[in-house]
Amino acid sequence: MEKIQMEKTEMEKTMKQRLTIAVLAAFLSLTAFSAMAQDRDHRDHDKFDDNDRRVAHEWYEAHHDHPPAGFRDRDRLEAEHEERLKEGYVLDQDFRGRIHPVPSGLRLPRPPRNQRYVVIGGHVVLIDNGYRVHDVIHLEVKF
């Protein structure tokens, strides 16, 4: 009788261990899947979406009276430069000299690998390491 009780206790212990292992494995799988999905979302975010444009415009309107470098009147582009700042354009030396960092208060999603956000001539621009433009948010205040 005592032996049967011990075997039953051992079986219960084994079942609890297996259940614990199964729960942990499921948790780890879900965590890994979530991390991969987030990474994929960042890789797929190679264009500005409507929310990015809204956030940038709201930020710009809130900071229009005291704009940081890149958004000041003297940083604006001439008409000929303005026309060239579009998807696919590779920034030449003149444009590269006009690059400013995006202000820390302008909250955009993390860009894809090998890409970054910059400010050029009052616009938020997504460029890659080869200075190719992937997208532009043209900012102008409408009063």
Helical segment count: 4
User: Strand tally, please?
Assistant: 4
Helix content: 40-55%
In the sheet with the most strands, the strands line up as 1-2-3-4
List low-confidence stretches: 37-43
Specify the CATH homologous superfamily of the largest domain: inner membrane protein cigr
Which fold name corresponds to the CATH topology of the largest domain?
A: Nuclear Transport Factor 2, Chain: A
Radius of gyration: 26 Å
Number of domains: 2
Order of helices and strands: HHHHEEEE
Global structural class: alpha+beta
Query: What is the CA–CA distance across the termini?
Result: 89 Å
CATH architecture of the largest domain: Roll
Could you report the average pLDDT, rounded to the nearest whole number? 84
Largest sheet: 4 strands, antiparallel
Overall spatial form:
rod-shaped
Q: DSSP strand (E) fraction?
A: 5-15%
- CATH domain class name of the largest domain: Alpha Beta
